[in-house]
Amino acid sequence: MKESTFTSHIARYIRESFATPVVVVKYHDIVTAGVPDLSVSFQGRTIFFETKSVERLTELRKKIDQRQLAFLMLLERTGVPVWYVISYRLGEAYRIAVMSPHDVWVWHRTKKILWRTNRFGATLSDDLTWLVGRYVRMNPEDK
Hints:
Layout: H1 3-16, E1 23-26, E2 38-42, E3 45-53, H2 66-77, E4 82-90, E5 93-99, H3 101-110, E6 116-117, H4 124-136
Helix pairs in contact: 2-3
């Protein structure tokens, strides 16, 4: 799955998941220079997502831009919610893994696996529901 397709899929899914107003901005269509791909503003807060799409999670290292990672870690240190959302193939299906910029930095250097996945879903749609519930709506039962 192309990264732009994956990002558009996430943006559309988030827009359709809310009955109340939500603003989803795809920055990679506007500017590059280290800015995350997507922001979601909802109920007075904003969360940023950087999307990556790989066939296997082992290919992710090649896709991490160190300047962008440094910028996202600065955002994260200020308390701004920032997440890498990674699409990868598992068998015939695509799935989602989520990592904080700090976790990406640790994983990139130590190979220690720190990503989070939806342990209960079986499809990309299940994973998107999990992503919206846990990282956008911040449902307490999902923490």
